[in-house]
Amino acid sequence: MSTFKALVATKGEAGPDLTFTEFAESELMEGDVTVRVTHSTVNYKDGLALTGKAPVIRRWPMIPGIDFAGRVETSEHPDFKPGDLVILNGWGTGETHLGAYARKSRVKGDWLVPLHAGLNPDEAMAIGTAGYTAMLCVLALEKHGLKPADGPVVVTGAAGGVGSVAVALLAKAGWHVIASTGRPEEADYLKGLGAAEIIDRAELAAPGRPLGKERWAAGVDAVGSHTLANVLSMTRYGGAITACGLAQGMDLPSSVAPFILRGVSLLGIDSVMCPKPRRLEAWARLASDLDREKLALMTTTIPLADVVETARALLDGKVRGRVVVEIG
């Protein structure tokens, strides 16, 4: 019987019990493509899943990991053949479908995206769901009609995964980027990615007024709660903010004032069930627009054995940028 190394989560009383084990290929879930996984990553959502701080995992036992890059081993899907390099982000992987922290995964071919010719597998996972989400935010702002000439753009949680990629993408596109972070020691790092200004997250994290001084025309928010409320209250007339995260909380203690007095728009960004055409557009833009030197600057690489420890550190705010996991 064929087996492979995997990180398996079983339901425990104080959160998931995590064990590295040999997993039987026959126990993989239904799908028409089997992939030899080479790389994954640790996103904020992975941190929540591995620590049990949010009910991300909804099927037990589970192989966590919400995205991967790898090479097709077998395929019954018309778009893929053995040897093809592919990426998967979301679709319930690591939540309801066995995920990425294993040397093999069997999934639906409709969930896969071909690896763009301009990227290799480790670069794809240096981007990962966090970077792909950042690009969805940038695309949403562009489709809303916003451009650098309209004013600054704010990025919250700027030293994290989504924030780091968003800063780099927006700066390269010509935006004046205001990076909000609770880690002042990361100022040089963020300026190296292209941030023009650094502000302390304390300016945005406490309860604020329904309307504040207009400071930016656009924004990428991965934090939620009071931070998002304050970002909205300080957005210029006709501006827009993309919301893609909940690091501070799921609540939004805001008012209708920014929407009805300044015509501000709140653009929701979902990466999990995002339609394939939009995924293909995002990955094509990432391959062409994301500076590889800046991607390397924000990336660290770990073995699969270090995933759990890294997930805990990420939720404690001790990880900056992106983490690539070498699966083997």
Question: What does this protein look like?
Answer:
The protein is α/β, with parallel strands linked by helices and about 325 residues long. Helix content is about 30%, strand content about 30%. It has helices at about 45-50, 120-145, 160-170, 185-195, 200-205, 225-235, 255-260, 275-290, 290-295, 305-315, and strands at about 5-10, 15-25, 35-40, 65-75, 85-90, 105, 110-115, 155, 175-180, 195-200, 215-220, 235-245, 265-270, 300-305, 320-325. The strands form three sheets. Strands 3, 4, 5, 6, 7, 14 and 15 form a seven-stranded mixed β-sheet that branches. It has a six-stranded parallel β-sheet with strand order 10-9-8-11-12-13, with helices on both faces. It has a two-stranded antiparallel sheet with strand order 1-2.
Structural class: alpha/beta
Low-confidence stretches: none
Number of strands: 15
Please provide the ordered H/E string of secondary-structure elements.
Answer: EEEHEEEEHEHEHEHEHEHEHHEHE
Number of helices: 10
Rg over CA atoms, rounded to whole Å, is 20 Å
Largest sheet: 7 strands, mixed
What is the arithmetic mean of pLDDT?
Answer: 96
- The CATH superfamily of the largest domain is Medium-chain alcohol dehydrogenases, catalytic domain
Which assembly state applies to the chains in this document?
single chain
The top-level CATH class of the largest domain is: Alpha Beta
Helical content, roughly?
25-40%
CATH topology of the largest domain, by name, is: Quinone Oxidoreductase, Chain A, domain 1
CATH A-level architecture of the largest domain:
Alpha-Beta Complex
The dominant shape is globular
